[in-house]
Design brief:
Elements: E1 21-25, H1 33-49, E2 53-57, H2 63-74, H3 80-104, E3 109-112, H4 114-117, E4 119-121, E5 130-133, H5 136-143, E6 147-151, E7 154-157, E8 163-165, H6 170-182, E9 186-191, E10 212-214, H7 215-223, H8 231-240, E11 244-248, E12 257-260, E13 273-289, H9 294-304, E14 310-314, E15 321-329, H10 333-347, E16 351-364, H11 374-384, E17 391-395, E18 398-404, H12 408-418
Parallel strand pairs: 1-2, 1-9, 2-6, 3-6, 4-7, 9-11, 10-12
Antiparallel strand pairs: 4-5, 7-8, 11-12, 13-15, 13-16, 14-15, 16-18, 17-18
Helix pairs in contact: 1-3, 2-3, 6-8, 7-8, 9-10, 11-12
């Protein structure tokens, strides 16, 4: 190891008591060779203070979108298995590039694929879930004093070694899952924003960065559109009590936002943030016989196809018939269109309609549903802005409304003002 930085004295995973640091760098952070060199500099700095560093990388810039576009120019519906094999190459290219950049700085490093890193997934393509992490190879490399660079977003099915991908934002999930398996001191998610904000700062210029937020609130924000972190990553962090810090690659001195298990104290401000989703659609199954079992007959085929639904509304029945509406991600519409004829005939409905010109806006905060006035303020603010609500869904810590897509930005700004989030 002549000419390299000395290996840290204590290594990861309990071999000598040290707890490694896991970092993840998103596609914007590694979009060019110059940015990869910058990331190498940040990783080298982290290595000097941590007993071991594991880095998870996304594909460079728009690589995933480019690969998808190429595949769809060849085939309108490419096979899911082949798409996983194709899309996983983006991260597989980026990981060795960062390892090479680290080596150029005199930092011993090794790149690993999802298979080599021990990421085991369920046998589902395009949206696989991690079922196990066997990080022995990572521990071995850390014990040799190397920085381990892992290709995010990918894993393998244990018995077949088929390559799978984890869906959009899957590198976040890889990073937090590795942090949990390695009992890391923390997982740092480096991205192009300075942390978690009270709303998307591109829509709300006076949105405020949160210093800290609990797992439950962050999970709801992520699930309803806050793109800074993948919901599955937050789930894993909460299950294993992994502190997650969202930071900016381009402003590394900023502390960012810490996501952790907050103490059970009553917050001064119930509403913590406004999230939104643009790529959604409303599906309505029209004039459905209003009898037991119909809802199961509608949603079971969607669930079996791996399609998530939200904001389910069933109208009051008349003459034994009712309409059932729900929202889905726009990316699932092709599959939904294929399934709808069977669903309609199976339940004896008159037909179905799709409205892709909608969006969702959500108010998130612990206890919002049980706090008098929170919902009323939301509906009043949207009404005063001239925005019509089409559907409503709620949980204990969030209220979601569907609105016309053309008015989404106005809706987000109106709600941010209504709850005075710029002052928290």
């Amino acid at each position: 190891m002549t000419g390299r930085e000395p290996a840290p004295a204590a290594m990861a995973g309990g071999r000598s008591g040290g707890r490694p640091l896991v970092q993840k760098y998103g596609g914007t952070s590694v979009a060019t060779l110059a940015r990869i060199r910058r990331v190498a500099q940040l990783v080298a700095g982290a290595r000097r203070s941590a007993p071991g560093v594991v880095v998870v990388v996304s594909a460079m810039g728009e690589t995933t979108d480019r690969l998808q576009a190429q595949a769809h120019r060849l085939h309108s519906r490419p096979p899911a298995r082949e798409m996983d094999a194709l899309l996983a190459t983006g991260e597989t290219v980026c990981a060795p590039l960062l390892a090479i950049a680290l080596d150029a700085r005199g930092v011993a490093a090794v790149s690993l694929s999802g298979l080599q890193a021990g990421i085991r997934t369920a046998p589902h393509h395009r949206r696989a879930r991690i079922v196990d992490v066997v990080p022995q190879r990572i521990l071995d490399e850390l014990a040799l004093g190397r920085v381990v660079v892992v290709a995010g977003f990918q894993g393998v099915v244990a018995d077949t070694l088929e390559t799978t991908t984890l869906g959009r934002g899957g590198s976040d999930t890889t990073a937090v899952a590795l942090a949990a398996a390695l009992r890391a001191r923390a997982c740092e998610i480096f991205t192009d924003v300075r942390g978690v904000y009270t709303a998307d700062p591109r829509l709300v210029p006076d949105a405020r960065r949160l210093d800290g937020i609990g797992y439950e609130e962050m999970l709801e924000l992520a699930a309803v559109g806050a793109a800074v972190l993948h919901p599955r990553a937050v789930e894993i962090g909460a299950a294993h009590d992994v502190p997650i810090r969202v930071r900016s690659t381009f402003h590394p001195r900023d502390a960012g936002t810490l996501i952790s298990r907050e103490p059970p104290v009553e917050p001064r401000q119930k509403v913590r943030g406004i999230a939104h989703q643009e790529d959604v659609a409303k599906v309505t199954v029209v004039r459905v016989p209003d009898r037991p079992g119909v809802a199961a007959a509608i949603f079971t085929p969607l669930a079996e196809a791996g399609i998530s639904v939200d904001a389910i509304v069933q109208n009051v029945g008349h003459d034994g018939l009712t309409d059932v509406s729900f929202t889905v991600a726009a990316a699932d519409l092709d599959q939904v269109r294929e399934l709808l004829p069977g669903i309609v005939s199976g339940v004896g409905a008159d037909g179905a309609s799709i409205d892709a010109a909608i969006a969702k806006v959500s108010v998130v905060g612990t206890g919002v549903l049980g706090s008098p006035g929170v919902a009323a303020r939301m509906f009043r603010a949207l009404a005063e802005a001239g925005i019509n609500i089409e559907m409503i869904a709620a949980s204990e810590i969030r209220i979601t409304a569907t609105v016309p897509a053309a008015q989404l930005a106005d809706a987000v700004r109106a709600l941010h003002r209504a709850y005075e989030l710029e002052t928290i």
